[in-house]
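Late entry, evening session. Most of the bench is empty. Finally got around to the prediction I had been postponing all week. Sequence below, unchanged from the version circulated by S.P.
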Amino acid sequence: MITERKQKNISKWFRISRFIVVFGLTFTTVCKTKQPVTNSEPLPSQIVTDFKMYESASGKRMYYLYAEKAFVFEEPQKINVIKPYVIFYKENGAVNSTLKSISGWVNSKTSDLFAKDSVIVQTSDSTILRTDSLVWDNDDQIITTDAWVKIDSKQGLIEGQGLTSDAGLKKIEIKSSVTGKSHYEF
């Protein structure tokens, strides 16, 4: 015979067991229906080590790009590059200048280049441009940036905000805040 006390204990354990079962079923159902976290950025279609790319027009070399690693994306038409090194060529095929930076990307449709983080452009006559970021416009064959620039050459040292130039740093326009010293007499 079950005593009243035992009946209350059984009832109490039954309620606790029922709570645990209902909680467990609810918890596992919620966990199963939870959607996985998705990244909104597309994945690259290719990952390439020792990436090399040549750009030419009408049979003339425009530039050569080497990168330690490249991530090729179909959409957007973009190639992210790690530690890019670019050689720009003159019309006669001689080296005009080189560019190196920590990272950047290439528009695979227009062949425009974007370099960022510790960007250095060095010409064949040892003129050096240092900046945070720059863009190579492949159609217009010009370098542009809105970042702070520092140009060190045999003629002197010039700094300023923003720049437009050819790849050989022969035709330079600094946009604002120009300071520096030069050996030229004005």
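Two things to note before I forget:
The helical segments are 4-33.
The first strand starts at residue 46 and ends at 57.
Will write this up properly tomorrow.
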